[in-house]
Design a protein that fits this description.
The protein is of the alpha/beta class. It is built from twelve helices and 17 strands. It has helices at about 10-20, 35-45, 65-75, 110-115, 125-140, 160-170, 185-195, 245-250, 260-275, 285-305, 305-320, 330-365, and strands spanning about 1-5, 25-30, 50-55, 80, 90, 95, 100-105, 115-125, 155, 175-180, 200-205, 215-220, 220-225, 225-230, 235-240, 250-255, 280. The strands form two sheets. Strands 5, 9, 10, 11, 12, 14, 15, 16 and 17 form a nine-stranded mixed sheet that branches. Strands 1, 2, 3, 4, 6, 7, 8 and 13 form an eight-stranded mixed sheet that branches. The longest helix has about 35 residues, at about 330-365. The chain is globular, with a radius of gyration of 22 Å. The relative contact order is 0.12.
Length: about 375
C-alpha cells in the first residue's frame, strides 16, 4: 500500500500508474479537467491497453463538460459507459490498473483538487480489495445492483453507515478526522458519546459540526478529503462525508485499512495540518440562518464573474503549444468557479454575521467594541 499526498505529489503518480498499464485500465470519473490524464488514457489505447471509463451522469449541473469528455474519449477508442440515474450522484473516485492495483482517491482529476487542495489517495495491491472494486465497477458499468460490499471496501449506500459506525465505535483512545462536513445526527451523537468516554477527537473540516462540543479546526488552504485515523493503527479513506445524503443516496467509495506505516504517515500529516489550522467557533443558530442567503449570493457572484477568459490566458502561458492534446478550458473554469463559490460563500456568511451582530449591539444600545 502506498499513500498519495496532495498537493505535494501532484499529478505525477497518477500519470505513472496509467503509463505502467499493460492490459487494462478501469477509471471512474466524477469531475475532470486534467488534459495530462486524458492524454495518458489515449496513449494506453495506442499501446493495446483496454481502457474503460465509467463517467457520472451528472456533477452539479455541469453535464455538458462530462458529455464532451465522453465524446472525446469515444473518438480515441476508449470504452465509455455512463452511470445510472438511480442514485442522486455517483461521486466515488477510483481507478484500477491491470486487475492488480486499486487506487482509491479523496480527490477528483482536477487542477483544483490535485494542485491546490489538501487531499490523499491510496494505491492498494491487496487482492481481495482489488477484486471487490472490479465487481463494483462492473456492476455500475452494467447498471446491475451492487450489494454486500466486502474486503473492507466502504460503499454508499451498500454498507457505509454500518461500516463507519463500527469504525468510530471501535475507537479506544484517539480519533483524528478529515471531513468536509459532519451533519448526520447519528454520527454527531456517536462522536459526542466517544468524547464523553474520554476519547480524544479532533476534526479538520471546511465547516463546523452540528455540535459545539466536537473540536473542529479549519485549514488556511482548501480541503478536499474524507479520512479517519483510529488509535494509530487503523484508518478510513474515501469519498463519503458523515452526511445522510452521502451515506444513503449517493455512490461513494472508500476503504478501511490497517497498514501501520501508512496510518502513521497520515497521522504525521494531520498533526502538521492541525498546527497550522484555526478553531471554528460559530454561533450555530446564527450560522444556520445565514447559510441559505450566503449560498444564494455566492452562487450569483460566481456566475457573474468571467472566469473562463482568465483560465484561458493563464493556461495558454503554461501549456506546451507543441503538444497535440486538445485544450479544454471549460472544465478547468468550472472547477475554479466551484472553488470560488466556496470561498465567496464563507466570506458572505462572515460579512452577514458581522452585520447581524453589529445591528444587535446597536439595538441594545451598548457601545460597539473599538477596532484594533
Amino acid at each position: 500500500m502506498k499513500l498519495l499526498i496532495q498537493p505535494d505529489d501532484g499529478i505525477k503518480p497518477i500519470i505513472q500508474a496509467l503509463k505502467k498499464a499493460k492490459k487494462n485500465i478501469r477509471i471512474l470519473i466524477f469531475r475532470f479537467d486534467r488534459v495530462e490524464i486524458e492524454k495518458a488514457l489515449v496513449e494506453a489505447v495506442g499501446r493495446g491497453v483496454t481502457v474503460q471509463a465509467l463517467i457520472a451522469h451528472t456533477n452539479q449541473g455541469e453535464e455538458k463538460n462530462l458529455r464532451r469528455l465522453e465524446m472525446r474519449l469515444l473518438a480515441e477508442g476508449i470504452t465509455v459507459t455512463r452511470t445510472a440515474e438511480d442514485l442522486v450522484r455517483y461521486h466515488g473516485k477510483m481507478f484500477i490498473i491491470d486487475d492488480k492495483v486499486l487506487y482509491i482517491l479523496g480527490f477528483n482529476y482536477t487542477h483544483m483538487d490535485i494542485d491546490l487542495s489538501r487531499s490523499l489517495g491510496l494505491a492498494i495491491t491487496k487482492n481481495g480489495a482489488v477484486k471487490e472494486a472490479i465487481r463494483l465497477f462492473e456492476c455500475d458499468s452494467k447498471r446491475r445492483p451492487y450489494t454486500k460490499a466486502k474486503d473492507d471496501l466502504v460503499v454508499s449506500p451498500a454498507n457505509a453507515r454500518k461500516s463507519l459506525t463500527e469504525f468510530i465505535s471501535g475507537t479506544k483512545k484517539r480519533l483524528l478526522i478529515y471531513e468536509m462536513k459532519i451533519s448526520d445526527p447519528d454520527f454527531v451523537k456517536l462522536l459526542n458519546k466517544k468524547i464523553s468516554a474520554g476519547v480524544e477527537v479532533r476534526v479538520l473540516s471546511r465547516a463546523s459540526a452540528k455540535s459545539g462540543t466536537i473540536p473542529v479546526r479549519r485549514l488556511p488552504t482548501r480541503l478536499h478529503l474524507r479520512a479517519m485515523l483510529r488509535d494509530g493503527n487503523t484508518a478510513f479513506l474515501g469519498s463519503q462525508s458523515l452526511r445522510k445524503l452521502e451515506l444513503e443516496a449517493r455512490r461513494e467509495i472508500g476503504i478501511i485499512f490497517r497498514d501501520k506505516k501508512v496510518v502513521k504517515q497520515m497521522e504525521s500529516i494531520f498533526e502538521k495540518d492541525w498546527k497550522r489550522s484555526e478553531p471554528v467557533v460559530e454561533d450555530s443558530k446564527l450560522v444556520s440562518a445565514l447559510v441559505v442567503p450566503a449560498k444564494k449570493v455566492a452562487k450569483e457572484v460566481a456566475k457573474q464573474i468571467a472566469i473562463k477568459p482568465v483560465v484561458e490566458q493563464v493556461l495558454e502561458k503554461v501549456i506546451d503549444t507543441k503538444d497535440p492534446t486538445p485544450f479544454e478550458p471549460d472544465e478547468v473554469a468550472q472547477t475554479v468557479r466551484e472553488a470560488f463559490h466556496e470561498e465567496v460563500q464563507d466570506a458572505v456568511k462572515q460579512v452577514l454575521k458581522e452585520v447581524v451582530v453589529t445591528a444587535a449591539i446597536e439595538d441594545s444600545g451598548k457601545p460597539q467594541p473599538k477596532a484594533k
